[in-house]
């Protein structure tokens, strides 16, 4: 299927989920994350997106609690729609948030974290395939951000659903995921020998 069709399909599937289902599935995803390889948990700087409730995204609050419990440095982003760039801030007790015009909670300001320091990125998505290609909302924020990250940065998608066999219109510039975590399973897209 093509990205446009996949966006439509998965937005519709998400809309069918109840608040209770989203909570249960999000908690299951957070618990599955604990199954990830120890090399993931040896990292320090974890970039986490804050869920858009209206889009019925995976609720990342449970992941936030796991990261805080493991004493990780949590990084959150502010989007700049005119440039499609993101500024990344360290989440602290003093971080203040406000909703932007797209209902995304964003930090007002804070301690800026350079992209080069970010070691793990939890990636929002609508769909993905068995090769680790992802379909986002089509604005390109994460494509630009992930391309700026180090090659060693781990990219972990979060999804309520299983993968598609193949996304037909993948571009060379698209950055693939290393893992995708669902309520049922952790998909590993990393080559066995690198």
Report on this model:
- It is globular, with a radius of gyration of 16 Å.
- The strands form three sheets. The protein has a seven-stranded mixed sheet with strand order 3-2-1-6-9-10-11. A two-stranded antiparallel ribbon has the order 4-5. Strands 7-8 form a two-stranded antiparallel ribbon.
- It has a single domain (3-188), classed as NagB/RpiA/CoA transferase-like (Rossmann fold).
- The chain is an alpha/beta fold and 194 residues long.
- It has helices at residues 3-15, 19-33, 38-41, 61-69, 141-148, and strands at residues 45-47, 73-80, 85-90, 97-99, 105-107, 120-123, 127-128, 134-135, 154-158, 179-181, 186-188.
- The two termini are 29 Å apart.
- The chain contains five helices and eleven strands, in the order H-H-H-E-H-E-E-E-E-E-E-E-H-E-E-E.
- 25% of the residues lie in helices and 22% in strands.
- The mean pLDDT is 94.
- The longest helix has 15 residues, at 19-33.
- How much is the average pLDDT? 94
Poorly predicted runs of 5 or more residues = none
Q: What structural class do you assign from the helix and strand content?
A: alpha/beta
**Given this structure, which CATH class is correct?**
Alpha Beta
Could you tell me the number of beta strands? 11
* Gyration radius from CA atoms, angstroms: 16 Å
**Main beta sheet: strand number and arrangement?**
7 strands, mixed
Q: So what's the oligomer here?
A: single chain
- Helices, by number, come to 5
- The separation of the N and C termini measures 29 Å
Sketch the topology as an H/E string, one letter per element: HHHEHEEEEEEEHEEE
Specify the helix fraction band: 25-40%
CATH fold-level assignment: Rossmann fold
Cofactor: Mg(2+)
EC number: 6.3.3.2
GO molecular function, one term: 5-formyltetrahydrofolate cyclo-ligase activity
Organism: Flavobacterium sedimenticola
